[in-house]
């Protein structure tokens, strides 16, 4: 008999393995059917299994993240291989495409600096800065063995060949080249080894020489015992006593052993008879818990005892009455409403009158009625800029507060009521009619000094044509805005439902795509502008009296990991009067504004850039939320037609505008509006990004068609 490893065996005359009774006996007592293999063959198979399972592998995987700190997955049986990249970095941070796949592009912050990461052994990570756009991918390496290859998720592995994070590296970015060249993945060999292990592991006991693994559950699992009740009977080898199972011995008898005369039964009979006797039989005694000792009952007549001279008097105040000498019963007071004969009625009637359009006059002056007429400007005051979304109040032309106008008022108004869907050159567009507007301080009254936003369908004193309704130096009666985010077909920008938005193009390319529609007699198509978006924002504010578009209208597609169709259900939540997807899903470029070191230039009436002299506050201080807004006008521009911050704050709570603004000190910065699919509470109708130049393209950046 010989012993090898944990197997006890013996050889027959031919050198074959044989157990004493025809079965192999494991060291832990398990047995397996003899396969007829030699010991050398068995040892060879065991060595191959051990080699495959212990082979080390180093694999590069990635995780898509949306926050600056968090954790990534560490597969079972694996450890994170730290400091595997240039300069001892634990990981590389790269951008992802619309499907969430890593791209050959390092993630950068808004200043253009590369974002790096620190990765802990437990998978916790910290990014050096917020990237300009979330989400991003954390690329890192793990070490494991063949026994645990099946724990590595294949969809998180970057590739089967050695990976290069950046295929083509600019000559001025040796850091990326070094990082990329440091990455090696042995995944192809890992897959081959895993296949060998899976193939071998899948064979039955016979192919393994009748040997089972020491971890085979059949060696230790619970199972139903064979029938053995007889072994627990009295006098047997494993007897159970009556006491052990809570039973009495077979000869146990209470009557014979403890109450030989039956006295207990007699006592019980006497007690029962005594209990059933009446109170009288007990000598007039009742039990202490008899309900008659404490139950509620009607008192005997005793009103006299509560009178003024009684033993238990009740005061008028105690019963809600007043004394008969209370002065309120006889004092003088203002009379109830009653009529008098008016002797000077002709004089009063002479002071009443009305205007030509039916509004009342008193003594020759307009008398507010508490509502708007369609010919009046709609006036909305920012009464408190310390409230989230703003505290807004409607006022009449005398700046007295009135009730908010009804939906029917706006639906029938000559501006709001004329916003309508149209088809132009087979494109789905929304018509926005001309309007005159202004932002002015309230001159007098309760809201004196507060800013009031005013809009009218007709030109009135103090109101000017909105900047969106000028083109080539000429006034416009309307413009048309794309109903859907822009898509691209045949080199032309379009506005159609049921398609994915066009992305990854610069603002210059999108303008060329829009103007490509102007052929065959078609004219006026353009990329949407800052002024056109400002006009839509102005209309939305006066109708809804809030700058929290997510709370008022719908959250939109802002909590996902990819873009969707331009009319997907969550995209369609962010809609206003027929325009779909005004925030969320993808950013939209908007022409007609440029920021130079924070100083704002906007289009004039001829689409030439004009220096407004206004500088955005708190530049390069991360996301900010506007509290008040720039006003004032100059030659060819009016700041009050837009919503540029005059003051802003870092906190969302208490900000007038609940949409984030981000502007930097760089030069030639252009404008993005609305916000994308992964930014949560930041996107909204007023969300603005002014930190990107006109040469930049990204999978988050789209556009929208417009027409004049």
Description of the molecule:
The protein has 708 residues and is of the alpha+beta class. It has 3 domains: 2-54 and 203-213, no CATH class; 56-193, no CATH class; 408-707, no CATH class. 13% of the residues lie in helices and 25% in strands. The protein has 10 helices and 41 strands. Strands 30, 31, 32, 37, 38, 39 and 40 form a 7-stranded mixed β-sheet that branches. Strands 1, 2, 3, 4 and 5 form a 5-stranded antiparallel β-sheet that branches. Strands 6, 8, 9, 10 and 13 form a 5-stranded antiparallel β-sheet that branches. The longest helix is centred in the N-terminal third of the chain and has 16 residues, at 39-54. It is flat and about 125 Å long. The N and C termini lie far apart (100 Å).
Characterize this entry briefly.
With 708 residues, the protein is of the alpha+beta class. The chain contains ten helices and 41 strands.
């Amino acid at each position: 008999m010989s012993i090898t490893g944990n197997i006890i065996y013996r050889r027959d005359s031919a050198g074959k393995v044989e157990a004493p009774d025809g079965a192999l006996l494991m060291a832990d007592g398990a047995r397996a059917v003899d396969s007829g293999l030699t010991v050398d063959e068995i040892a060879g198979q065991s060595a191959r299994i051990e080699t495959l399972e212990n082979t080390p592998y180093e694999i590069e995987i990635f995780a898509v993240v949306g926050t600056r700190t968090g954790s990534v997955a560490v597969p079972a049986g694996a450890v994170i291989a730290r400091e595997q990249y240039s300069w001892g970095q634990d990981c590389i941070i790269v951008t992802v495409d619309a499907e969430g796949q890593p791209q050959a592009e390092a993630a950068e912050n808004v200043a253009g600096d590369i974002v790096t990461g620190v990765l802990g052994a437990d998978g916790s990570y910290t990014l050096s800065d917020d990237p300009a756009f979330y989400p991003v991918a954390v690329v890192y390496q793990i070490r494991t063995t063949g026994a645990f290859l099946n724990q590595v998720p294949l969809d998180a592995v970057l590739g089967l060949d050695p990976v290069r994070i950046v295929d083509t590296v600019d000559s001025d970015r040796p850091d990326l080249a070094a990082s990329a060249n440091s990455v090696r993945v042995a995944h192809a060999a890992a897959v081959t080894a895993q296949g060998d292990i899976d193939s071998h592991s899948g064979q039955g006991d016979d192919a393994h020489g009748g040997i089972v693994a020491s971890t085979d559950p059949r060696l230790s699992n619970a199972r139903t015992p064979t029938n053995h009740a007889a072994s627990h009977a009295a006098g047997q080898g494993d007897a159970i006593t009556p006491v052990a199972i809570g039973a009495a011995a077979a000869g146990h008898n209470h009557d014979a052993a403890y109450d030989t005369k039956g006295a207990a039964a007699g006592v019980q009979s006497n007690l029962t008879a005594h209990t059933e006797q009446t109170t009288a039989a007990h000598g007039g005694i009742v039990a202490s818990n008899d309900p008659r000792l404490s139950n509620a009952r009607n008192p005997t007549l005793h009103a006299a005892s509560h009178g003024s001279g009684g033993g238990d008097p009740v005061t008028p105040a105690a019963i809600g009455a007043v004394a008969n000498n209370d002065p309120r019963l006889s004092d003088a007071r203002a009379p109830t409403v009653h009529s008098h004969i008016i002797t000077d009625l002709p004089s009063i009637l002479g002071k009443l009158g009305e205007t030509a359009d039916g509004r009342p006059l008193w003594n020759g002056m307009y008398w507010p009625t508490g509502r708007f007429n369609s010919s009046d400007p709609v006036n909305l005051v920012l009464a408190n800029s310390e409230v989230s979304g703003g505290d807004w109040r409607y006022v009449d032309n005398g700046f007295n507060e009135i009730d908010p106008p009804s939906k029917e008022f706006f639906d029938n108004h000559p501006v709001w009521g004329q916003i309508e869907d149209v088809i132009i050159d087979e494109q789905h567009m929304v018509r926005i009619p001309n309007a005159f507007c202004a932002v002015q301080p309230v001159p007098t009254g309760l809201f004196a000094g507060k800013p009031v936003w005013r809009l009218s369908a007709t030109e009135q004193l103090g109101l000017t044509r909105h900047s969106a309704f000028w083109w080539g130096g000429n006034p416009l009666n309307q413009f048309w805005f794309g109903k859907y985010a822009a898509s691209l077909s045949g080199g032309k920008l379009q506005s159609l439902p049921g398609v994915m938005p066009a992305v990854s193009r610069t603002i210059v390319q999108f303008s060329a795509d829009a103007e490509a529609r102007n052929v065959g007699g078609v004219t006026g198509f353009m990329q949407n502008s800052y002024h056109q978006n400002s006009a839509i924002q102005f209309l939305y504010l006066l109708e809804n009296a809030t700058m929290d578009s997510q709370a008022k209208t719908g959250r939109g597609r802002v909590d996902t990991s990819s873009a969707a169709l331009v009319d997907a259900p969550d995209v369609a939540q962010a809609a206003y009067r027929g325009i779909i997807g005004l925030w969320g899903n993808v950013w939209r470029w908007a022409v007609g504004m440029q920021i130079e070191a924070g100083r704002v230039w906007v289009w004039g009436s001829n689409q030439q850039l004009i220096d407004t002299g206004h500088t955005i506050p708190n530049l390069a201080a991360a996301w900010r939320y506007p509290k008040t807004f720039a006003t004032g006008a100059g030659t060819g521009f009016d700041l009050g037609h837009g919503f540029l911050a005059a003051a802003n704050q870092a906190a969302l709570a208490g900000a007038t505008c609940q949409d984030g603004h981000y502007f930097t000190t760089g030069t030639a910065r252009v404008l993005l509006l609305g916000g994308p699919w992964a930014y949560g509470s930041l996107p909204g109708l007023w969300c603005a990004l002014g930190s990107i130049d006109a040469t930049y393209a990204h999978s988050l950046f789209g556009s929208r068609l417009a027409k004049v």
